[in-house]
Amino acid sequence: MERQRLPEWLRNVPVTHAETHATRRLLRRHRLHSVCEEARCPNRGECFSRRTATFLILGDTCSRACGFCAVGRGGLGPPDPDEPRAVAGLSAELGLRYVVVTSVTRDDLPDGGAGQFAATIQAIRERCPDATVEVLVPDFQGDAAALGTVLAAEPDVFNHNVETVPRLYSAVRPQADYARSLEMLARARAARPGRPVKSGLMVGLGETDEEILAVMRDMRAHGIDMLTIGQYLAPSGHHLPVRRYVHPDTFKMFEAEAYQMGFTHAAVGAMVRSSYHADQQAHGVLNAVAAKA
User: Fold this and answer.
1) Is residue 128 a contact partner of residue 95, using CB atoms and an 8 Å limit?
2) What global pTM score does this model have?
3) Are 166 and 144 in contact (CB under 8 A)?
4) I need a surface site. Which of 50, 131, 191, 287 has the fewest CB within 10 A?
């Protein structure tokens, strides 16, 4: 398939900034990874220049082979017992008030890495007691006990991305399952009444607008109240190609439909990613939760 040219609304997106080097050096010094770098996020320059990053725990190699993802595969090692402390230490050094923690998928581990998530949340609470913590977790192969381990650590925002429409799972997420992801999110909602549950989608992989709207309806039916939708950008020529660049007017339509469906917050736009300005995404939702408490 011939590679599509970037449309005008995407051509001037910066990939890196000179100011990013200090944040990179801090990550290296603490021997930590960020999904910003490992997944080649197009927003990484902006985020690093703001001295913020989304921490990637459980190493920098994944047990799965999703067609859209730039994270490396193979060479899986045991979880680093010092990693939670290092994440908390760097969060404190950066003065983060909102900390986002995600991970590679570790199907090789008995708990899928849930214990490392819980330990990291606890370490952040101890070093940064005023910080808000969001976790973006894998599906843990549907293991309810692993999910319970993460939820017991009481993250402020629980996130798991559905990523795409069910018709495309075999190409985009061949080792995942659409129904399993929705069920995990529904379990998180049932265990956390009134607390934010979040999920996200990519567009441009060959889905139709109606398929995206159908997934959004499924999300609402499973209790998801925060939504992100962004444009898929192929990390390299070896990844799934971009099938379409979604026009800003279509993103506006998705956003309007999201609020019509009852999502409490919808971050929708070409450069939106799950963790991009995550603090701003969650601000109003968390304030509403606090007001009801």
Assistant:
1) no
2) 0.90
3) no
4) 287
CA atoms of 252 and 9, how far apart (whole Å): 14
Return d(Cα 107, Cα 104) in angstroms, integer: 10
Class of domain 8-292: alpha beta
Query: Which tens digits make up the pLDDT trace of 3-57?
Result: 567 888 876 555 455 566 777 787 888 788 876 676 666 666 666 666 667 899 9
Whole-Å CA distances, 94 to 51, 63, 98, 116, 141: 7, 30, 11, 21, 34
Structure tokens, 27:
């990550």
CA distance 67 to 244: 16
- What values do phi and psi take at 111, rounded to 5? -105, 10
* Dist CA 24 CA 154 (whole Å): 29
Helix (H) or strand (E) holding 61: strand 61-62
Q: Which amino acid is at 48?
A: F
Tokens standing for residue 86:
């290092």
